[in-house]
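subagent[fold] <- orchestrator: predict structure for attached chain, return tokens only, no commentary.
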Amino acid sequence: MNPRSITDQEFAQFQRFIFDAAGITLSSAKKALVTGRLAKRLEHCKVDSYGAYLRLLVSGTVPDEVQIAVDQLTTNETYFFREMKHFDFLREQALAARARAQPFRVWSAASSSGEEAYSIAMVLADCMETTSWEVLGSDISTKVLEGAARAMYSTERARHVPPAYLRRFCLRGSGEYADKLLIDRSLRARVRFQQVNLNTALPELGQFDIVFLRNVLIYFNDDTKRQVVSRVISGIKPGGHFFIGHSESLNGINSTVEPLSPSIYRKPQSHAQSPRK
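subagent[fold] -> orchestrator:
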């Protein structure tokens, strides 16, 4: 079966579908992404148009397919130790917590396939010694979270991992897995993954010293950005820190955190925690 190309009306319907499901705004330039990522799902479901596939999704008869469609349209490529300045800052904050013998919690709030969460864990395992620490990785896509839990990656994605961390925390494959690496079991055990939709009320996750929410706000409109950022900041301890991507900004989005440097913000000690929406 060769599905026909998507019509403007069908694409507009998928724009609404993914906005309602995940708060993501798809520009008209993403039409090829939608057709490319969903074509095989049309074949799998034996429907002959994108409109028919969408009607299947909204019918409520195949809830598993809805999650698959969301997975296909929200998955993004990432790599280890992206934007190294954030990890240098993370180390400084973790060392300060260790000096005070205070437990340290970090949330990778859009962790995709897990590279960011494991990068965080490598830094904490290296510098926290016996002080308690925890890393939570979350994403809306169950597909990428399953891959994150498996913790096997191409060596290309690990090109920015410090050599000492590669030796300590990564197992290199051989034979047919020569271009792969596996995160060491002891580190995998320290990272927890959970599905979280940032576009809805958050589950009870507790409070975090640092939250990474990087390179995801660019997919939201301004109103959705305000809601998502407000929810996430409510989970940061007073005095804790919030990271966004270098191409992103909170100007006009949120004024309850103080900018320390581009893409790094601090929640004031006196800031009253806002309720989750």
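orchestrator: received. Logging for downstream: Residues 185 and 209 are 25 Å apart (CA to CA). Confidence is low (pLDDT under 50) at residues 271-277.
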